Amino acid sequence: MASFTLQRQPDGVADPELSLLFWGREQCAPGHTYGPGMRDFYKIHFIQSGSGTLTAAGETHRIGAGQAFLTYPHMRVTYSASEETPWLYSWIAFKGSRAEQLLARTALSAASPIFPLDDKLMPTLDQTMSRDALASDAADLLLLGRLYEFLAALIAIVPRREAGRDGRSRPNPHVADCLRYLHAHYDEDISVERMAREFQLDRKYLSSLFKRETGMPPRQYLLDYRMSRAADLLDRTDCTISEIAFSVGYRDPLLFSRMFKRVRGCSPRSYRDRRC
After folding, report:
1. Residues 131 and 259 in one domain
2. Pairing between strand 19-27 and 67-71?
3. Lower CB density within 10 Å: C or N end of the chain?
4. The whole model's pTM is what?
5. Which of 132, 157, 182 is the last residue of a domain?
6. How confident is the prediction along the chain (276 residues), in pLDDT tens digits per residue?
7. Please, are residues 233 and 239 in contact by the beta-carbon 8 Å criterion?
8. Which domain holds residue 244?
9. Is the same domain home to 143 and 248?
10. In-domain check, residue 135
11. Domain count, the chain
């Protein structure tokens, strides 16, 4: 049986940067399953006992007592309790731009969503929140404080790996996956829809996230990257225009030439002859 509590904000109060939505606890029935499905908020399950599996970003993970897992907004997931030893788990759900920023300070990602419980806060976080909710005048402040306390503990347990030598922080893990995918498959007939299916993300969410991180939509990034590779081939090889078009994902050489001129300001032949 599940215990579930919805967080109610006082009238006129809303915090779009970080909002605690609900929390709860459940002894799962044998084989209890969610999904495949996606939500529009972050949700973390804390495994108190039992075992089960999580499938996310094309990977299946076995998860047992003393572990927790994070599911991301707009990402398709499936999780199932074991038939023999079903989970007893608790959970919290939250959303907001501040949540995304704070989670980016951890090593968690869609492909690596599992972390160990601490010994103090996480095993009883849902029960602590239920007690805090009884404070009639300041429950919202106490509960938001608990959420920040949990996120601080999470960053301490699974801190983000250090930035590179240039001092820049790593990109959002979804965007990093997409960039690797584009760089590996730019010579194929790929699209935003195909990439979203590959990583089990909502297409609109992926496009918005990619643009926020890179400054351009995925389609424009792919075009620029293809033309950069084409320019390199024009410089370094004696391949024909048709061969270069094929090498960067275009089966129609005329379409390739139009796209190259749009990006570089001249035709591929003029570029090779150094007339532009």
Report:
1. no
2. unpaired
3. N
4. 0.60
5. 157
6. 455 455 555 444 455 689 999 999 999 999 999 988 888 899 999 999 999 999 987 788 899 999 999 999 888 899 999 999 999 999 999 998 889 889 988 888 887 899 998 888 999 999 999 999 887 778 888 999 999 999 999 988 888 754 444 455 556 778 888 888 888 889 998 888 988 888 888 888 888 888 877 778 899 889 988 988 898 899 888 899 999 999 999 999 999 999 999 888 899 999 888 755
7. yes
8. 173-272
9. no
10. yes
11. 2
